[in-house]
Inverse folding.
């Protein structure tokens, strides 16, 4: 099993071993696809954007300075590509949320028992949310990214990311409660 770091692989590619790039693709393609699919809500479009993302990364690998981590840089490129795709859709509203104050400590969050029906309801609720909120929740909870990493990926301020996460949690909670009410739970 190859335990090379991202930086080791990048240096190999920069040194002329272009086949080593396949390791990065294998390592991150599913995660990039999940991120992009979560933003666009379209599997075919997500596949195309994922491929384009890796082509861009390969073409610009020499420009990556090694700061912030390769995965964060990769996600930023994927995020920008997905958002650019959404901007070409005239019916999508991508207005940024106003900056606000959210404390550093995590606000109290409702937790749900993880069941098959809850997961299905959560997936339906996430699909109904704006791409910005869906992306923030996905990066924070499913990809375990920090506020700082999400800020870098989405090119937003830390406080804006906190506001988006706060509002996203509230919206998700409300949607989940509505779904449970509609289904008699």
């Amino acid at each position: 099993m190859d335990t090379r770091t991202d930086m080791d692989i990048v240096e190999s590619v920069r040194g002329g071993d272009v086949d080593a790039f396949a390791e990065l693709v294998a390592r991150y393609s599913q995660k990039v696809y999940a991120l992009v699919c979560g933003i666009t809500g379209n599997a075919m479009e997500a596949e195309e954007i994922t491929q384009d993302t890796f082509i861009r990364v390969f073409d610009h690998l020499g420009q990556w300075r090694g700061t912030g981590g390769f995965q964060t840089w990769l996600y930023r490129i994927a995020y920008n590509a997905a958002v650019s795709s959404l901007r070409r859709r005239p019916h999508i509203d991508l207005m940024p949320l106003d900056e606000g104050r959210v404390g550093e400590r995590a606000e109290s969050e409702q937790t749900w028992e993880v069941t098959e029906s809850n997961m299905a309801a959560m997936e339906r609720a996430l699909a109904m949310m704006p791409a910005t909120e869906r992306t923030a929740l996905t990066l924070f909870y499913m990809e375990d990214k920090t506020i700082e990493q999400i800020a870098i990926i989405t090119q937003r301020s830390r406080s804006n990311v906190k506001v988006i996460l706060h509002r996203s949690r509230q919206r998700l909670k409300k949607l989940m409660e509505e779904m449970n009410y509609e289904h008699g739970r």
